[in-house]
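hey so i finally got around to running the thing on that chain from the lab meeting. sorry it took forever, my laptop kept dying and i had to restart like 3 times. anyway pasting the input first so we r on the same page abt which one it is
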Amino acid sequence: MTPETTVFLLTLILAMIHLGIGSMTRIFEVGPMVLLGPRDNLPPRQNTYGIRGERANHNFKETLPWALGLLLLVQATGHTNGVSAVGAWLYFWSRVVYLPLYVFGVPVVRSFAFGGSLIGMGMIASQVL
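ok and heres what got predicted. didnt touch it at all, straight out
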């Protein structure tokens, strides 16, 4: 398995973690029985960590299709190499670090983590061009 394939799979697991954080904080807020219903009249989120987790998830989903697409493209074209592997890992670890930084409200460093993920995607893209 190439590093790019490994990162692809790990990124999907990270997506599930993002989803889980939002779900778990919501369960603590309103209880599981409310969430088992149609959710028509859910109250707004009150938990700061849940709100941040939801925003972090939205941000993650903005880069997710681009990253997965690039990872597939670099493999489909046969252009995997050291640069694409480093770019893939940079994207992944930047997104891993980004989540707790966002949830716990750490400024500035969070933006650097986001920037690292963009640089990682750029490194992958540069190998396809």
